[in-house]
Design a protein that fits this description.
This protein is of the alpha+beta class and 170 residues long. It contains 3 helices and 6 strands; from the N terminus they run αβββααβββ.
Length: 170
């Protein structure tokens, strides 16, 4: 006579066991979700800070290159003057105004090598004149107008305006 090791009542999980497992999974999900959201916020803030640092460095390097061109009376394709022209940065002609990059795609964006779509930014404003502002909003931020970096091209006798990134809405 065959021996049945499991009585007929011991097949599968009971309803109570399933409810306990689902409850445990729900509690774990509830504690992990806020941490995940916080990580996304931190990533957007880091992105804004990174682009800010990149623009500051690029503006300083472009100004240095422009000053060298002016001091050396360099002639050719890349000619920078006290009021405009171009600076050669890694073979790219960066448009300049008042010895600093302009606030457009051929200015600070080219100098800092910013690719808006690949880097996760939307860009608004900008232009080639002095005192023009270009804004970089972080894509995916709950409040893009409060998760941004701005660059205002230099006016005569001063450096460009680059306020710290706005990260309250990241």
């Amino acid at each position: 006579m065959p021996i049945n090791r499991f009585p007929s009542s011991a097949k599968g999980f009971t309803l109570i066991e399933l409810i306990v497992v689902i409850t445990i999974i729900a509690i774990l999900a509830a504690t992990a979700l806020p941490r995940f959201v916080e990580v996304q916020k931190d990533a957007r803030i880091a992105k804004a800070n990174a682009i800010f640092g990149s623009m500051r460095s690029a503006a300083a390097l472009a100004k240095s290159r422009c000053e060298l061109d002016i001091a050396g009376n360099i002639a050719g394709t890349f000619v920078c003057s006290a009021t405009g022209g171009y600076a050669n940065m890694d073979g790219t002609a960066v448009t300049m105004v008042n010895k600093y990059p302009t606030a457009d795609a051929n200015g600070i964006q080219a100098a800092a090598q910013i690719n808006a779509s690949a880097d996760g930014f939307t860009i608004s404003g900008g232009g080639t004149g002095a005192g023009v502002t270009m804004t970089f909003d972080v894509v995916g931020a709950p409040s893009p107008s409060n998760c941004r970096v701005s660059y205002t091209s230099a006016v005569a006798g001063s450096a460009p305006v680059m306020p710290p990134p706005v990260t309250s809405g990241c």
